[in-house]
Amino acid sequence: MKKTSDVMTATLEQSRQGQVLILTIANAEHRNALGPEIYAEGMRALITAKEDKGISCVVIVGEGSMFSAGGNLQRLQANRQQPPSVQAQSIDGLHTWIEAIGALPKPVIAAVEGAAAGAGFSLALSCDFIVAASDAVFVMAYSNIALSPDGGGSWRLTHALPRQLVNELLMCGERITAQRLNDLGIVNRVTTPGSALTDALELGNRLCGRAANALASVKTLVQQAHHNTLPDHLKQERDHFVANLHHANAGAGISAFLLKQRPRYE
């Protein structure tokens, strides 16, 4: 199935492989640049993923040898001639999509080939996992053109890395390799060039074999851990544990483990 917008050079293509929904950023003319039509299609895709019980995982990938160059510079230049509200509305669309990725109770994996720049880097950071080719590069290129970050990139990097390193990435706008991000704990897997999607699908299929309710709880707990006090977080862990214990999947999982069998979850 292929989803298109009125702007034919910027589309978000949807396909399925088993229980994995694949979203492909396709904007070849502008190196898979992001824009309002992509954000709108992304939102519709996530609504589908949330409601469709046949989808257990989502993979986001760029068409060809590029993940995403981030913002379309021609569109940004044109928006400078428009009221500030025009660009604000566009960024709100990006941020709504970014927040929806976090709110989706299913794992989302970024499969990165080539470059993830600007909002493309922020998009990858918003995913629950990043699988990247060994020659992939990541860059917060905003300061290179006198701009500041969007898409939550500054927030996520600040929560993951020392302040001085974040300042280097954001202020200097220098590229950082997939291997260094793997060493820093941001990229989960580094794979051979051309294999990021294959390896992301392998990871996705592994996740599909686990209980969806348990994965949803883990995603929620990990996201809330930054904001909770320990006592509050312990209460949330308790509540999730008890709810999951009394879910049918726990019965299937415990029984299968005791019988040394493969569990079959709802």
Task: Describe the model.
With 266 residues, the chain is of the alpha/beta class. The chain is 48% helix and 16% strand. The chain contains eleven helices and ten strands. The strands form two sheets. It has a seven-stranded mixed sheet with strand order 1-2-3-4-5-7-10, with helices on both faces. Helix 1 packs parallel to helix 3 and helix 9 runs antiparallel to helix 10. The chain starts with a strand and ends in an 8-residue tail after the last helix. 37% of the residues are buried.
> Helical amount among residues, as a percent range?
40-55%
Rg, please? 19 Å
- The total count of strands amounts to 10
Helix/strand order: EEEHEHHEEHEEHHEHEHHHH
Give the integer mean of the pLDDT values: 94
Shape: globular
Largest sheet: 7 strands, mixed
Question: What is this structure, in a nutshell?
Answer:
With 266 residues, this protein is α/β, with parallel strands linked by helices. The chain has helices at 36-51, 73-79, 84-103, 119-126, 153-160, 163-172, 178-183, 196-208, 212-225, 230-245, 248-258; strands at residues 2-3, 11-17, 20-26, 57-62, 108-112, 115-117, 129-133, 137-139, 176-177, 189-191. A seven-stranded mixed sheet has the order 1-2-3-4-5-7-10, with helices on both faces. Strands 6-8-9 form a three-stranded mixed sheet.
